[in-house]
TrEMBL record:
Signal peptide per UniProt: none
Organism this protein belongs to: Aegilops tauschii subsp. strangulata
Subunit structure: Heterotetramer of two alpha and two beta chains arranged as a dimer of alpha/beta heterodimers.
Active site location: T186
Enzyme Commission identifier(s): 3.4.19.5
GO molecular function annotations of the record: beta-aspartyl-peptidase activity; hydrolase activity, acting on carbon-nitrogen (but not peptide) bonds, in linear amides
Top-level taxon of origin: Eukaryota
Enzyme category, top tier: hydrolase
Protein name per the record: beta-aspartyl-peptidase
Lineage of source species: Eukaryota, Viridiplantae, Streptophyta, Embryophyta, Tracheophyta
Pfam families: Asparaginase_2 (PF01112)
Length: 207
């Protein structure tokens, strides 16, 4: 049986109007992550391992709303979420409210693999992360200049801004349409391995 993989950078589309110096690093990261996942599948890795691997890479990239690039809360902090599902046996794991875990997707997998639970949040999730010895950093690791600017603009306009688009705040808010570049989302990956195993993973910095 063949294998397949798909991924997305989420947190809104990457609009064609985005300056090349900001657009190209995002596209390059997506291409690199796609190649990484494809190589792992060709080498016989399981779909579950591959989706975790790819999403970890996206979490480590400051250009996306996950992990290191997480959108800031109104208080200027981060609250990250992630979930993973193994289609082979329908197991899943999820975490939310994380503020120090470098790779939330790996903690979500540990919830799935190491606990009887499906979901851990906030202090409980952080305590579990420490117990499992996953990599932890202080808040400064996750806060980028781009997201500080985005938060400042959002506060000035009194509205949420979580994607790549620089809004024209003088215009009224309109419902999105098929051509809208302000649609929101989160990073993710889905894969099918050579044995037919299916898995998916997603991670976000929230709003």
């Amino acid at each position: 049986m063949g294998w397949a993989i798909a991924l997305h950078g989420g947190a809104g589309d990457i609009p064609r109007t985005l300056p090349p110096e900001r657009r190209e690093p995002r596209l390059a990261t997506l291409r690199r992550c796609l190649d990484l996942g494809a190589a792992a599948l060709r080498a016989g890795r399981s779909a579950l391992d591959v989706v975790e691997l790819v999403v970890r890479e996206l979490e480590d990239c400051p250009h996306f709303n996950a992990g290191k690039g997480s959108v800031l809360t109104s208080d200027g902090t981060v609250e990250m979420e992630a979930s993973v599902m193994d289609g082979t046996d329908m197991r899943c794991g999820a975490v939310s409210g994380l503020s120090t875990v470098v790779n939330p997707i790996s903690l979500a997998r540990l919830v799935m693999d190491k606990t009887p639970h499906i979901y851990l949040a906030f202090d409980g999730a952080e305590a579990f992360a420490r117990d499992q010895g996953v990599e932890i950093r202080d808040q400064s690791h996750f806060i980028t200049e781009e997201n500080i600017e985005r938060l400042r603009n959002a506060k000035e306009a009194n509205r949420v801004q979580i994607d790549y688009t620089q809004y024209n705040y003088t215009q009224p808010i309109q419902a999105p349409n098929d051509d809208d570049n302000s649609r929101t989302g989160t990073v993710g990956c889905v894969a099918v391995d050579a044995s037919g195993g299916l898995a998916s993973a997603t991670s976000t910095g929230g709003l």
